[in-house]
């Protein structure tokens, strides 16, 4: 199956289990891979035959910037729920959420989670 990919989408949000995260906020990076049949779009060159990735970006932004969750697992789950609800052609979603600077001691590039869901 074909894919639509949004990589390295950056948002400032207030998700986290610690009070500092809820108060100060931080950057969240979202990578999203949508499984969609793109055969028609590859032939017709018509936006109506695909999923508009700009609209998907706005769907992700709403959850990342307007909602507040304790866990990035829940943030990712809410994003997936919204994408399935708003974009019927999407058959499966792989979504990764990372925090580059969580309030934990150590040296690392980022910490995060990845969810994979198929349309029920």
TrEMBL record:
Protein name according to UniProt: 7,8-dihydroneopterin aldolase
EC numbers for this chain: 4.1.2.25
NCBIfam families: folB (TIGR00525), folB_dom (TIGR00526)
Pathway assigned in UniProt: Cofactor biosynthesis; tetrahydrofolate biosynthesis; 2-amino-4-hydroxy-6-hydroxymethyl-7,8-dihydropteridine diphosphate from 7,8-dihydroneopterin triphosphate: step 3/4
Species of provenance: Streptococcus caprae
Keywords linked to the UniProt accession: Folate biosynthesis, Lyase
UniProt family annotation: Belongs to the DHNA family.
Gene Ontology molecular function terms on file: dihydroneopterin aldolase activity
Catalytic activity: 7,8-dihydroneopterin = 6-hydroxymethyl-7,8-dihydropterin + glycolaldehyde
Entries under CDD domains matching the protein: DHNA_DHNTPE
Protein task: Catalyzes the conversion of 7,8-dihydroneopterin to 6-hydroxymethyl-7,8-dihydropterin.
